[in-house]
Predict the structure of Phosphatidylglycerophosphate synthase.
Amino acid sequence: MSKFTLDDVRERTYKARDAWWTVLLVDPLAARLVRFTANRTNITPNQLTVGALVLGLGAGASFALASWPYLLLGALLYHLSFTLDCMDGKIARLKGTGSVFGAWLDYIFDRVRVLVCAIALMGGQYAATGNVAYVWAAVGVVFLDMLRYMDALEIYKVRSQMRAQLRRLQEEAELLELAHKRANGEDTPVIDPIERLLSPDPEADMEDQVVGDQPTPAALLQQGFNQQFPWYARIRNVLTRTRIRPHLISGIEFQMGVFIVAPVAAAVISGAIIPVAALAGVGMLAFELFIIYKFWLSSRDYSRTLGTLERKVADLRAGFPHEHQPSLTAADSA
């Protein structure tokens, strides 16, 4: 069996920035369970993903019964389900056993868990009270969860495309400048193409890094945002030191608000589920609008930077006679 330490788990599996609910209420337990699971068992990440779904379905069954003891049980099962859901990714990163299928399975099961629990929680309350507002609340929860994750995936995809295009033009400009220097007889350093390919992406999201990674440089695509909101960097830096991301009410906090905080509140105060769920939804929408605005500013930075790089590449190419255009493959930089 392996001998992973708790420090190994933290350095290799903790995200550099994560939701505050995960950092404060899940990781302290999950890290110890991951160490035990990795060292003492052969449980795979996909098995943990299935286990998280089973616990999520158990939470849904408890919510459907509607009485306060079952609401508390459902909230507990949902938290344990989310803990297992966090463990599968940590085990995969720790042991290097992640897979594309595992990532897909994790995403699909997450959405199934939210759908089942939303219908069960609100449906159980509707059956117990006859209040049709619970039906609309179920629709609202499912819609907001779908909107949040669709938006996150699309923004991630577009930002990745933007980064790739800027990186390609930056490398092309570097190689053209190198070719100009060689044509003029200047001494030029040898550029290792492998080193370029493996160098950190200056636009990489910290959510994609773990604690043990080297930090990446500041993002070029955030210049406009940083100029308009200079105070944001100070808040971000304070939170980052504790691994908490500034997006304080994300999809994770929204789910926990609806499926943990709301049922617990309803066990104490009758009728608390809809107000608490609505408050969680409003908070998430406010932060999502902030993210969309930030992304819009990034797109403007991208357009300006792209135009500058395209003009630079065109000017550098114009400096060579047509028949002597340099070949700009990675091998030519060595």
Observations:
- The CA atoms of residues 188 and 232 lie 41 Å apart.
- The chain has eleven helices and no strands.
